[in-house]
Design brief:
Blueprint: E1 14-18, E2 21-25, H1 28-39, E3 45-50, E4 58-64, E5 69-74
Length: about 80
């Protein structure tokens, strides 16, 4: 299996309130366009899990409907 480079793109994140601060988290809806661009339209997102304690950036494990998964890094454009 050959790996294709993932195009750089800005993925919007869902806003979640944590205490008094707002944090933004990606979800299946916001990750779908990027997943389609990389993997095509034959696969669908089955689940998105945020990876904790790995980085200050958003790191997600995205499980696809064909039992494969990928790691997605999301940076806020600030």
């Amino acid at each position: 299996m050959s790996l294709r480079p993932v195009p750089a793109r800005c993925i919007p994140e869902a806003t979640v309130r944590v205490g008094t601060a707002e944090r933004k988290f990606a979800d299946a809806e916001t990750l779908t366009p990027a997943m389609r661009e990389v993997f095509g339209t034959d696969r669908r997102i089955a689940a998105v899990d945020r990876v904790f304690n790995g980085t200050n950036k958003g790191v997600y494990r995205v499980m696809l409907d064909d039992a494969t998964s990928t790691i997605v890094f999301v940076w806020n454009p600030v």
